[in-house]
Design brief:
Double Stranded RNA Binding Domain; 3-stranded antiparallel β-sheet; alpha/beta; 2 domains; TIM Barrel; binds zinc ion; binds 3-methyl-2-oxobutanoic acid
């Protein structure tokens, strides 16, 4: 692969993905996802926005400490404090990138920044010069590029490249772009900016009109050589361009595409599952590549065609992207070494013996209830509301739920709250409602349930139920996840997980909402 046809894959699941309402991740969860991204050979991992909160700073630092093969990046507004904080967080990185940005569209400059274009340009140049004091790898984003004026973009891009920016990112921040228009913007800028050959041009598309992947590919056809994307298309509002769709479109349509990626596609489905179970954002069944139906053929004509000649209806092979890779079944009699090895193959490692012991005990408890344990079960086992760095104020001690025809379901629950056991019971319109009402009798959190969903993790009636509970409290939205072979217990765990996140949550700033 030459540098002309290499497409840099920049994953921002841990930063823009985390900006999805409710998709917050703890430091350890981010590290687990980052390890999977590294295994997948993602070129750049945007690990967070270091200035946003102490938690974000620590996450960027933790990712920078463990990731060796991918570049680790932190976002920073084009201001001194942000850039210095990003540089500090990235210190341990083998290869670190500072990604700094400022808005360039008339509407953002006038109303949000209240700055004139000349001031924006000066601030951008100063930011790049400062960032270059910490690393050679500096990226500059023109926020809201797709609604910015062409002449101004030419001037600012030329100036920041002269100041030392090596990547120029042109985000479609509000998802307004259309493929021809967005692609033309790249071609014209690359043709007109005199020093454009000194930088890599990058796409960053949001999916408000469902065009994020199409816009990204159009940019690639017109000279972009970096794509910013997220696993499962997670991200602000309707999300970002989905990594798996970009990578597979480029691979499957290599006859048309002028580029190649380094991605090891066999890790796509396991990574998608991991992100989904950590964030509590289920993957829709018909989602391209990673949805459960993406390779399922229902119609008799299709099935017949496939049996006669696979390529009649299949343009990609499910097993190539990691489907059905969960063949190795573990069970009740599997030993510690086999379980540890399987965890490690999923990117889950244990620094201390007691961590492995706890994970093994949870594996055994699950194996008592469930005959066969697949990779998905192990992933969920490690992310169902017990991350090591989340303080568990509320813990489930015991739950008893009674459902009888003609009678209102009732729940009796004991929780351990700050080390003290408290019991309560309540009735509800269904067993889940009774469970949540009982928890609220004990906790009285004042939060509002916004979403409740149950998914089966694997097939079969002994599958674990993977429950997501979204709670809102004082404008904060969090997703709690819980898994169990009993979906009522899974629901209680998910509810408590959400409450634990809410009570440990620190205020965090948002890159686009905070004025500079
Ligand atoms: O969408 C956007 O403009 C962004 C930038 C901060 C890169 O996420
Ligand atoms: Zn974005």
């Amino acid at each position: 692969m030459t540098s002309k046809n290499k497409l840099v894959i920049f994953d921002t699941t841990l930063r823009d993905g985390e900006q999805s309402p409710g998709a917050s991740m703890t430091r350890d969860e981010k590290v687990r996802i980052a390890k999977m991204l590294e295994k997948m050979h993602v070129d750049v991992i945007e690990a967070g926005f270091a200035i946003a909160s102490i938690g974000d700073f620590e996450s960027v630092r933790a990712v920078a400490e463990v990731i060796k093969d991918s570049t680790v990046c932190s976002l920073a507004r084009a201001i001194r404090g942000d850039i210095e904080r990003a540089a500090e967080a990235l210190k341990p990185a083998n290869s670190g990138r500072i990604h700094t940005f400022i808005a360039t569209s008339p509407i953002h400059m006038q109303y949000k920044l209240q700055m004139d274009p000349a001031k924006v340009l000066d601030q951008a140049v100063a930011a790049i010069k400062l960032a270059r004091q910490f690393t050679d790898d500096v990226e500059f984003s023109l926020e809201d590029a797709s609604r910015s004026e062409f002449e101004f973009m030419c001037r600012i891009i030329e100036s920041v490249i002269n100041a030392g920016a090596r990547t120029i990112n042109l985000p479609d921040t509000v998802g307004y772009g259309e493929p021809n228009e967005y692609g033309n913007m790249f071609r014209r800028l690359i043709e007109n900016v005199p020093n454009s050959d000194k930088a890599i041009f990058s796409t960053h598309c949001h999916n408000d009109l469902g065009l994020a992947v199409a816009n990204s590919l159009s940019a690639v056809m017109n000279g972009a050589r970096q794509v910013e994307c997220t696993i499962n298309g997670l991200g602000e509002r309707a999300g970002n361009a989905a990594l798996e769709e970009i990578v597979m479109a480029i691979k499957t349509r290599k006859d048309l595409m002028p580029v190649k990626t380094n991605i090891d596609i066999s890790h796509i489905v396991p990574t998608s599952r991991l992100v989904s179970s950590i964030t509590g954002f289920p993957v829709q069944p018909n989602k391209a590549i990673v949805g459960i139906n993406a390779f399922a053929h229902e119609s008799g004509i299709h099935q017949d065609g496939i049996l006669k000649h696979r390529e009649t209806y299949e343009i990609m092979r499910a097993e190539d992207v990691g489907w059905h890779a969960n063949k190795l079944v573990l069970g009740k009699h599997s030993g510690r070494a086999a379980v540890k090895a399987r965890f490690e193959s999923l990117g889950i490692t244990f620094e201390h013996a007691d961590e492995l012991n706890a994970a093994f005990a949870r594996f055994k408890a699950l194996a008592d209830k469930k005959h066969e344990i697949f990779d998905e079960d192990l992933q969920v086992l490690m992310s169902d509301g017990h991350p090591q760095d989340l303080k568990e104020i509320y813990q489930l001690v015991e739950i008893e739920v009674l459902c009888k025809t003609g009678r209102a379901p009732s729940a009796k629950i004991t929780l351990c709250v700050n080390g003290k056991n408290i019991a309560a019971s309540a009735i509800g319109s269904g067993p889940v409602d009774a469970t949540f009402k009982t928890i609220e009798l004990i906790v009285n959190s004042g939060s509002h349930l916004q979403l409740y969903s149950v998914n089966a993790i694997t097939q079969g009636t002994d599958s674990q139920g993977d429950v997501t509970v979204r709670l809102e409290h004082d404008g904060h939205i969090v997703n709690g996840v819980g898994a169990d072979t009993d979906i009522i217990t899974a629901s209680a765990k998910a509810y408590l997980h959400a409450l634990n996140i809410l009570s440990s949550r620190t205020q965090k700033s948002h890159p686009q909402h905070d004025g500079i």
